[in-house]
Amino acid sequence: MRAGRRRERGIALFAAIWLVMALSALALSVTRETQTLTRVAANELAAARAAAAAEAGLARLGLGLAAAARGVSVSVPATKRAGQGRALPRPGEALRLDGTPYAWAYEDAAVTLSVQAERGKLDLATGEQALLFALLARLAPDRAERLATEIVVARERDGTSRGMSWRLEAGDMQSLEDLARLPAASPEIMARLDGLVSTGTGRAEPDPLTAPEAIFRLLDLDEDTRRRLAALRRRAQPVLLGREPERFTLRAVARLPGGITVERAALVEIAAGRDDALRLIERVPALLRE
Fold first, then answer.
1. Does the pTM of the predicted model rise above 0.85?
2. Beta strands 109-117 and 246-255, pairing class
3. What was the pLDDT predicted at 175?
4. Residue 247: in which H helix or E strand, if any?
C-alpha cells in the first residue's frame, strides 16, 4: 500500500513538474509575442511620427513658395535647424529651386527639405538628344545607348510600328513611372533619374539657373558663361519668371534618432495673382527605410 502511495506521489510530482514546464513555456511564448507586438507598435508609431514630420516639411515648403508667389510675408515661429544643409528661409523669402537641401527640425525629427523647379530638369519628350545621351551615359553607362535610343524612337509618331508599345510625345508622359514601359528601363535607372528628368516643360534645354547640379555640369556652356551662371546659382532664385504657372517638386526626408526614415514628395503648381497660389498636382507615396 505504501508502495502504491509512493507511486501516486511520484506520478503527481511528475505531472506537477510537467504542468509547471508547460505553463513556463506558455508564459515565455506570451512574453515573446508581447515583446514582438510592442516592437511592431513602437516601429509603427515611429514611422507615423516620421511621416508627420515629412508632411509638415512639405507644408512648410508649400507655404514658403505660395507666400513668395503672392509677394507676402507670413509670420511663423523661428525655423529650427537640424542635420546638414542650409537654414530654411522664412516664408516670403526666396528658396533655391535647384534641389539644394535645407535642414529643418520638427520635434525630434531631422528633416531635409528641397525644392526642384521642373524647368530645371531635362524634358524626356523635348530635350536635346545629345544632353539625354550624356546624362544616361553618366548614370547608366551599360544601358545608356539602348535606353536613349528607345526614348528617341518612342518620340517619333511611327514608334508603334517599330515594335514600341507606346509613343512618347510632349505632354503624354506624366511621371517617371511611364518611362518604366521601355524595355531598357530598370528600377535602378529609374531611381537614378528621379529628380533629374521631367515631361511637359516643352524645353529643349533645362533652365541653367535651376537645373540640378548633375544636369548643370552637362550643359554645353563656355567657361565664362559657366562661371557667371554658377555665381548666380548660389543665390536664391525667384519662384516665377513670368505670369504663367510653374511646377515644382517638393521633397522632405524625415529621420528619427532611432533610424526610422520617411520620404515624401509632391508635385505642385505655383501661380501668381491667384488666391489659390499653390495647387497640388500629384503626391508621391511615402518611402519607409529603417
1. no
2. antiparallel
3. 59
4. strand 246-255
